[in-house]
Amino acid sequence: MYLTSMFFLLLGSSSSLLMSLISLYKGVGYFIEWEIVSTNSSSVVMTLILDWMSLMFLGFVMLISSMVLYYSGGYMEGDPNINRFIYLVLMFVVSMVALIISPNLISILLGWDGLGLVSYCLVIYYQNEKSGAAGMLTALSNRVGDVAILLAISLMSVYGGWNFVFYLNSICGDGSLGILCFLVMLAAMTKSAQIPFSAWLPAAMAAPTPVSALVHSSTLVTAGVYLLVRFEPAMHGSSYSQALLLLGGSTMFMAGLGANFEYDLKKIIALSTLSQLGVMMSILGFGLPDLAFFHLLSHALFKALLFMCAGVVIHSAKDYQDIRMMGGLSKFMPLTTFYMNLANLALCGMPFMAGFYSKDVILEMAFMGTINYISFLMYVLATGLTVCYTARLVYYSVTGGFNMGSLHTVNDESSLLTSPMLLLALGAVTAGSMLSWLIIPYPYMICLSSFYKSLVLMVCGLGAWIGYILNLGSFLYMLNSFKFYSSVVFSGSMWFLPFLSTQNIMFSFLVNGLNIYKMGDQGWFENKGGYNLHNTLMGKSSLLEKMQDNSIKLYMITFLFWGVLSIIIV
């Protein structure tokens, strides 16, 4: 089942990438429209757009999905419901494809809602209390974006159509429809987990690791970024772009800071994804959609590779996810460790790796532009924190002493798990340069001083040094001795966003519901409602039962009563 699906997805990926190159070379795109119903001069149409951007993104989604499906054959081998899992993943991919090739808000909603529904089914796949809570948080957070898309559809009805690609300049100049930009931005922020909707992304790690590799690389979380890339001309230079710049910068800083205090392997990588999504959103707010799309594609390859490596480690390490229980994995899993370090170097922006070509240009364009000091500081700190938590992850899991028991099964002998990594590893090394030649054929004119030019390298080196220093026992003891516990809790809890998104919202509802239950359902409602009605009906029914008893005395009294009554009336 998974082999057949992988083959067709790989074939579709090759075709899509080839068509993208042809479209990019010729400078043409195809717009296919099918009218479903027309009412009040407004037509509901099914629209497809096949230009170089949608076809290239489609090719990357299918490529990563094919590798994930092949990987799932080894990872989910012992699952009795593996076919159901494969069907869910395929539904997930189909929903993402529908979203990518739709320039119409109504048809986008189909893929948008499909992603939300199938992601809920995948997050609760293991059917325990933790996954159920995570799935509910994921679904409800994404419903906010669904409602925003529905409101945007209703606002766009004044144009007589919902193909927003035709009306982007009009939306930008129409002050009365400025709220439309806000709704689209809100929907994208919920799907891409920007502040204050960030809590669901680490919680969604309750899903199987192949799903995490797919979700955090090319689907679901990237849907919001892709929508804003398409919608950027309508937001260019507006106050919403400035808000997006600030929120994206806050998200990447918060996620990078939280990853340095996390010990769950999958959550560290999830917070890494959140940090990179913040980079994409902030550069979109800066007005550079081509760079955001470039980083989106390059990030997809090495992040999928990193999650696959994490899945192999967890699968082999007795299903442990705590990095403190690992250590010295390079001796037992040399191939997986090689791929993992490759993905980590690409994530940090190592020169001539995939992440370098996009992140370096993004940072230099941000430094050269008219950026405020707060955003500049967030960019610098987030870059250093990325290298910091990566060095920390390598320190705990790959190097050092082996912390597992003697009866371990740590190895990378399964070809089903390691074979898909090869193609993604090649992409993590070469895709950045190839994409830079295709997407940015004319280089940006960047004029920076030697200090700003070397600032990225200095920050990365400082971050790597701090990442190792932070894990020394003496330094952690010093932190505890200075009573830094509260700041550590604040930094490691994503600025209390999980609490604000769950317990804080539910607490007042649950307490008030308990009071209403005691005072209402078990109080006045019960006394004057069901309980009182029950007693009244029981009393009346017992009276009727006595009256209907087969007693001669009762019949004679009733006959006498009716006889006297008839005489009086006559």
What attributes does this structure have?
single chain; 570 residues; mainly alpha; 3 domains; 23 helices; 2 strands
Question: What would you note in describing this structure?
Answer:
- The chain has 23 helices and 2 strands.
- With 570 residues, the protein is mainly α.
- It folds into 3 domains: 1-236, no CATH class; 239-493, no CATH class; 502-569.
- The chain has a two-stranded antiparallel sheet with strand order 1-2.
- The chain is globular, with a radius of gyration of 30 Å.
Task: Please give the structural blueprint.
Elements: H1 2-26, E1 30-39, E2 42-50, H2 52-75, H3 82-100, H4 105-123, H5 129-156, H6 168-173, H7 178-191, H8 200-203, H9 209-215, H10 221-235, H11 239-259, H12 265-285, H13 289-316, H14 334-348, H15 354-368, H16 373-397, H17 415-439, H18 450-469, H19 473-481, H20 485-492, H21 497-501, H22 503-547, H23 552-569
Antiparallel strand pairs: 1-2
Helix pairs in contact: 1-2, 2-3, 2-9, 2-13, 2-17, 3-4, 4-5, 5-7, 7-10, 9-13, 10-12, 10-13, 11-12, 11-16, 12-13, 12-16, 13-14, 13-15, 13-17, 14-16, 14-17, 15-17, 16-18
